[in-house]
Amino acid sequence: MTRPIDSLSPAPAQALSAPSEQAIATQARKAEHIRVCLEENVQSHLTTGLERYRFTHCCLPELAPADLNLHTTFLGKALAAPLLISSMTGGTDLARVINLRLAAAAQRHGLAMGVGSQRVAIENPEVVSTFAVRSVAPDILLFANLGAVQLNYTYGVEECLRVVDWLRADALVLHLNPLQECVQTRGDRNFRGLFDKIAALCNALPVPVIAKEVGNGISARMAQRLVDCGVGAIDVAGAGGTSWARVESERAQDPLQRRLGNTFANWGIPTADCITSIRAIAPQVPLIASGGLRNGLDVAKAIALGADLGGLALPFLQAAADSDAALDELIKALIAELNTVLLCTGSAALRDLREPGILVKAGAGME
User: Fold this and answer.
1) Is 88 annotated for ligand binding?
2) HSE-up of residue 210 (Cα within 13 Å, Cβ side)
3) 313 is in an annotated binding site
4) What cofactor does this protein call for (predicted)?
């Protein structure tokens, strides 16, 4: 029987040997992020915008459950359902347990997964194992992760290759988080010249680069510039879910940083607006919708609007903090919700959700 996460003692093999002061601070921040997300109310007061849409109910779908197909591909890899366990954590003993539980669940159910920022592992390679999940998930679509801003703070192709190799990852997420860095005490705030550095990185890496926000959204204009740089996919990570301004405000000891977090807690572009605007200018780019998705109905709406995958973070974190069984229950519920949308809209496959009239603006008339 799986024990709750907070009852698990650190594995002896994970003992750290004299990490640097900076690495210790980064690890402490990672641990605080987990605690704050699980214990505090750090949700944005903005909505995702998905509530503005509804599916047209089909009372006679002419389908049976055996006809429904949630399978898809992303970046050339097959998935059993259009679900991504979004990038969350790593760098601590508790994060190691969370990542292993998440990865094992992704393997069982054929889902994609990203890990949290691996900057802490660059600073202290002793914690690489808190991200390494291939032992329990040899087949999943797996994303490594670094902050794009670190390309202005001594990181380059070598460090990016290192985090990809450590994970045997299929792609590298470069997360874009200017607001979080502004609110975070001693955050890294030099974002100058990054488009050129991202373009050079995309050209040098042997795996695709995914540009991802962290909860404030990617606009169509920024998406076009990122595509022009060569990124292989975009994760909109729009507003409507966890507010990292709120998270950093909860952690802040400095009154100014706490004020900044509260002032900008509801900053960003709602997830639905990100999807529709990006699809209008980049119809072919692989697109992940994340930011406030909480159930299979949200994922289905995001796909109907043009996303290829739906990414969830907080629901998976909460389940992983409980047990493997809780993760399985969550994933089964998400899949049941997706299948219900397919059946009740008369859609045999995910692509059918994009047929005209299937998803309409709430309040719009029907034939």
Assistant:
1) yes
2) 31
3) yes
4) FMN; Mg(2+); NADPH
